[in-house]
Amino acid sequence: MSLVIVILISPLLLLGLLWFWKELTMGMVLSQTTTMADKNVLITGGTAGIGFETALEIARRGASLIITGRNVTKGQEASKKIIRMSDNPKVVFKQLDLTSQADVIR
Ligand SMILES: NC(=O)c1ccc[n+]([C@@H]2O[C@H](COP(=O)([O-])OP(=O)(O)OC[C@H]3O[C@@H](n4cnc5c(N)ncnc54)[C@H](OP(=O)(O)O)[C@@H]3O)[C@@H](O)[C@H]2O)c1
Fold first, then answer.
1. Domain range annotation of the chain
2. CA-based torsion, 90, 49, 101, 71: positive or negative
3. For the chain, which ranges sit under pLDDT 50?
């Protein structure tokens, strides 16, 4: 009898633990809606990959955002996409090559 109860409860317990792990590692942080409307944020490499996704989430929270990268066409397209997807017009692209001392000083 007790073995039957253990067999029935174990999958539910496992599913509960998996759900909690998902919430802990993904859901709780990503579902925050803390406003960033009073923040100015600069994301280097914000035109692709991890930087783009970070920039998009920050734009969704209302911050004034500058994204940078070397490729102007890619950067302008990324900034337009972020504005469209976040409905936040306060997003600009600035060209910046972090391997160039002159660019960093500028
Ligand atoms: N630790 C980890 O587990 C882990 C996992 C994934 C990624 N990473 C690291 O995280 C970083 C981003 O990865 P990702 O996959 O998101 O890369 P990605 O998609 O290639 O994006 C790179 C971004 O950086 C810009 N960039 C590249 N070189 C630059 C330079 N010299 N000056 C200014 N901007 C530059 C790119 O734009 P332009 O090409 O227009 O310059 C682009 O916006 C990489 O360094 C990667 O190695 C770490």
1. 1-30, 31-105
2. negative
3. none
